[in-house]
Amino acid sequence: MKYIYDIHKIMSNKNLILVYEGEFTQDITKSVLTMAERNLDSLGEEVNTKKKVFNVMVECLQNICKHSDIVVSDEERGAVFMIGKEEEFYVIMSGNFIKQDQVEGLEGKLHHINTLDKDGLKNLYRDLIKNSEISEKGGAGLGFVDIARKSGQKLEYNFEPVNDQYSFFAFKTKIARIND
Amino acid sequence: MNRLEIAGTEDTPKVILDKNEGLFEISGRSLPEDAAEFYHPIITWLEGYSKAPNTDTAIQIKLEYFNTASSKLILDVLTKCEKITGAKVLWFFSEDDEDMQEAGEEFSELVEVPFEVKQY
Questions:
Q1: A2-176: what CATH class?
Q2: What tens digit of pLDDT does each residue of A29-88 get?
Q3: Domain boundaries, chain A
Q4: Which stretches within B1-120 are classed as H helix?
Q5: ipTM (interface pTM)
Q6: How far apart, in whole angstroms, are the C-alpha atoms of residue A29 and residue A60?
Q7: Contact predicate A169/A95, CB 8 Å
Q8: What's the gap in Å between the CA of B120 and the closest CA on chain A?
Q9: Which H helix or E strand runs over B66?
């Protein structure tokens, strides 16, 4: 039973206001969004900050949904989504399994996004929105570009190999609580 | 031409397209996972309408949020508006919503249709 207390302590120490672990679907995305939104409302957060947090959450959650069918083993499946509230930032974190052969491509996209400034991101977004196909389920990386633009911060990420086939993709975005 | 009306939900916008009433509006939240499926009837309707439009058509877009999956389809909707003679797009953003204002301005640069970005 001690782990209940442990989890509670970790969550308090890390200032996590919401943690969801498990299966991800559009319905669950909607529930998590509703919960997070109520949370932000009750904290009396400023509208622009709230909208940015909401936008980043949507992109993160829908990204996770795309990989939700991956089962590494009985113990290693599903994904995790967390929101932390620090003094100056909201921190949105997600973790999910992805196929090993997708790691290089994703890492390249994220790295490229982090090399761009405000205008560079705007141009990349423009190119992607104009040239991507309708049928493509947002797989062009538009989501990550949007996250980088809305947050105004560098994207933080890590790939932890789980076995030959899969890696665990950890992703973190910060949203400033005070407009500068 | 039949009126197209879709009630808004927590993740899809309210849509009213009505030639007789002169109402053309998309409003609310647009966060569907499959945006192509949601926007398909809207794009088809606009395509039909462009063949025999009213003298003036003011397409009002008043979105609170939209996801990147929707953004491509919103661009497709706006591209269809280019083909409607006498059309103009009114993109609304709520007070201080800089991201939505910027989104409107960026869309306006991508299409060749009279475009106003306005606060509501």
A1: alpha beta
A2: 999 999 999 988 888 888 889 999 999 999 999 999 987 778 888 888 889 999 999 999
A3: 2-176
A4: 35-49, 68-82, 98-110
A5: 0.91
A6: 10
A7: yes
A8: 15
A9: strand B57-66
